[in-house]
Amino acid sequence: MDDMLFDGVEITDDILMELAKELLPRSYAPYSNVNVGAALLTKGGKVYFGCNVENASYGATVCAERVAIFTAIAQGDTDFEAMAITGIKNGDLGEPFFPCGMCLQVMKEFCDDDFKIIVEKGMENESYTLKELLPKGFSL
User: Fold this and answer.
1) CA geometry: angle at 75 spanning 74 and 78, to 5°?
2) Which of 82, 73, 80, 23 is nearest to 53 (CA)?
3) What would the pLDDT profile of 29-69 be if each residue is shown by its tens digit?
4) Which of 10, 18, 54, 65 is catalytic?
């Protein structure tokens, strides 16, 4: 899935979540059986995508959130508005998938405190700000 520009179209939380779900089949998670998809919305209306990619050397694993952010940065976009994150574990949708500490720290580096993080809880979406999920974030 290539990045997409939604010029003049309002991207709701629900639309962003549906886009994140499209990445689940692309996830490579043979070790944890946890597939995660992320859709990152820029303030300019462009959406970038990420899925988790695991590795036998687990430290080389990359989360869906960071893949989406790094892809956007590589394309020259650094002004982010929101990210939807969804996942399945062993084929089942369970509890919401929140960003890990490393992903939150990357978000802190590139996003404002009011950056919206949308997670799927059952059939509903919940949104949080980066500040809510990382209240004492580290920055220089």
Assistant:
1) 80
2) 23
3) 999 999 999 999 999 999 999 999 999 998 899 999 999 99
4) 65
